[in-house]
Amino acid sequence: MKQVSEGTLLWEPSNERKKNSKINHYIHWLKQHKGLDFQNYHSLWKWSVNEIEAFWSSIWEYFEIKAKDTYQTVLTSHQMPGAKWFPEATLNYTEHIFNKRAFSEQPAIIHTSEIRTTTEVTWQKLYQDTVAMQHTLKNLGINKGDRVVAYVPNIYESVVAFLATASLGAIWSSASPDFGTQSVIDRFQQIEPKVFFTVDGYRYGGKDFDRTEVASTIEASLPTLEATIAIPYLDKEATFQQLPSVTLWKEAIPSQHQDQRLSFEYVSFNDPLWVLFSSGTTGKPKPIVQSQGGILLEHLKALTFHVDLGEDDRFFWFTTTGWMMWNFLISGLLTGSTIILYDGNPGYPTKEKLWKLAEETKMTVLGTSASYITACMKDTFQPKELFNLRYLKNISSTGSPLPPEGFQWCYENVKKDIWIASASGGTDVCTAFILGCPILPVYAGELQCRGLGAKIESFNEQGQPEIENVGELVLTEPFPSMPIYFWNDTNGSRLHDSYFDVFPGIWCHGDYLKITERNTCIIYGRSDATINRGGIRIGTSEIYRAVDHVQEVADSLIVDIPKIDGDSFVPLFVVMKEGYELTTEIEESIKKHIRTHCSPRHVPTGIHQVSDLPKTLNGKKLEIPVKKLLMGKPAEQVVNKGALSNADSLESFVAFAQQLKA
């Protein structure tokens, strides 16, 4: 494979592809209806971020947003935090899913897993099942503002449960069943749910994982629960005897519901749609609340213009219900696309799995992680020689930066005429700030553009924007899918400290970003301490809680070091209790607890004993300085030893960094 470097031009869209793109249609619509003439993407982007009220009101009009009460005000102020969008408007997210499609016999969802065969579900079937589930939730007393939580895989039933919840103006939150028990409890307890969806277990990599006892423990830990709805998934005959009062899925979706209609609870634009959770880096995961209207507008914009989705598309993303990409995938239904769900190991029985799925489902957009692409690259197989991928038009990648070699591998081994879109965003906004565009060229290792309506800049330490230099990714204007608040953060201090304490009034996202002179972007990883394995993020505090179960370990510190191939090196450093040394048995015990309490994906790549961990005077571990140190930065540049309670502890980390260089 001929080597490419960062910035090598790899692909340009044909004139026909540009002409037929959804964003080109929008540009012509703006000219016809608004008298605005944009000659290229960047001029459109500049208008969208400098005239944000005009831009977002055009999105409302272009997508014909249905509202019971329309808006008079687009944006109350430009102050962050505190700005409110379309405050007078009332609407419902689920209504826009089924708008004009409720009785269509075209496929809405294709779902498959390691347990189930591939099945197509029509829009009409999805609508009917959502009606039935809405009826069940109403009978259980679910009203606007109530919380519904789900411990479920990425399966068809999860989509039905979510859409029914949102139709009632209730608030959704989900966690994947591969999460550890305490991780789920830490999330769900905070929002005091009324109804709990669960499965009996799941299959991953050919192995079955029973979760009935875990579900029982979670249920018992949620005192506000009034009902549990159980989905027999691992075992079709599961009875859930461990749960004291349970409704089985077949009872919640009775067969005689075909003639009923969905009703929609119209809520304020800024009322909650769902609660997503941060990775829990500095404590319990933050409950991030996003609005019905903000998500609706942003996902319509991002999926239509930046993923180029329409009714003829079949949209897939490899994800679990514990990652914001699941929410993003479900919103593909807003565009009329068929969405494709897969539950299982993408590398089982071989890494060919997703490419085989692409052929089987006639997939047009394949969304995955950079680590999956680099893993395929290392296996040196050629999907184009094994599978018919003639329908595939786009490969989207997120979770971590896709290296230039990953881009090149796709063009040489998947398809010459394919649009590669690397994207970067986050749970915080449930979208991508920086993403693809079907009318722009693709350069190796670079993200094509900043998203419409997102005024992204790269700030230096003085808070000044720069081009061609790496800085902090910041957002300098309000954005509709920003959190409306954190749950139980009554004075907004937790929200403020999470995003606005670095540059006052400016959203600081926590990514290292370089904006090039041609307005492409390069992400150099997180500037915080989140652990990111295979696109699944988890906070260090969750790792520490798992390690704390190992009695011989006194303290621990973990960091995620990105590698040039898109993978990462994740060392765990442990301080042993007096009288103990790190043995093979203790290492295996640590790994077992991390698998159980977090997930198998977050087992460290190495465990290393140290005498002490560097801490500040108030006892905080120096995760980010250690990360920078192991990435090759000199110690004097990453930490002020005078601010440490134990400056000598850095010596072992300096020595470790030198070993990595060798």
TrEMBL record:
Q: Which Pfam families match?
A: ACAS_N, AMP-binding, AMP-binding_C
According to the UniProt entry, what is the EC number of this protein? Answer: 6.2.1.16
Mind telling me which SUPFAM superfamilies this protein's record contains? Acetyl-CoA synthetase-like
Ranges for domain AMP-binding enzyme C-terminal come to 549-620
Cite the entry's keywords alphabetically: ATP-binding, Ligase, Nucleotide-binding
Q: Does the keyword Glycoprotein apply?
A: no
Its domain of life reads: Bacteria
What residues does the Acetyl-coenzyme A synthetase N-terminal domain cover? 41-96
Tell me one GO molecular function of this protein. Answer: ATP binding
By its UniProt entry, which InterPro entries does this protein fall under?
A: Acac_CoA_synth, ACAS_N, AMP-bd_C, AMP-bd_C_sf, AMP-binding_CS, AMP-dep_synth/lig_dom, ANL_N_sf
Q: Which GO terms describe its biological process?
A: lipid metabolic process
Q: What sequence ranges are listed for the domain AMP-dependent synthetase/ligase? A: 104-478
Regarding protein family, the annotation reads: Belongs to the ATP-dependent AMP-binding enzyme family.
What this protein is called in its record is Acetoacetate--CoA ligase
